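Before the break, one more example. Copy the sequence into your notebook; we will annotate it together after we see the structure.
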Amino acid sequence: GAHGVHRVDDRAREVDARHAAMLLASAQRYTRHMPAAADAHKVRLLVLDADGTLTDGGIHVDAHGVESKRFSVRDGFAVRCWLRSGRELAVITGRGEMALRHRLTDLGVRHLVSASGPKGPVIEALLANLGVPAAETAAMGDDLPDLPMLHRVGYPMAVGDAVPEVREIGRAHV
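Here is what the structure looks like once it is written out:
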């Protein structure tokens, strides 16, 4: 009908039931990659890569050499919700640009490690500094430099367009 209002009949219910069954079957194929729902509540720290995870992966450089990046407002909303839940969030990035610093400050993120170098030792130092066990940490990345970080946490995750090696280790494909 007009304005998105539709009558629900038995046929629509059958289609919805089949669709739900297909979605469930699809989700079950990835169960081995997903953290158990009962365990996910244990996550106290979320660690994110920046380029390709918090951004669309592009770097815009103007004629004066000034970089800019594109951030998602949806990610910003999710970051704020995470922080309001009383949990910690950190960003580890191999670059050290001002656009990211401004964005994270605006969102209330207190932990940024920029121009980090190898991310494995960096996340170990971060966990020690914050007193959070790796088993209670989730991390999300998209590219090969993120692998050492993802190997060291209890809940490794990959963005949808991550390289295959990152998708393979990621329990959740977001």
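Confidence is low (pLDDT under 50) at residues 1-35. Residues 10-29 form the longest helix (20 residues). Try to locate both features in your own notes.
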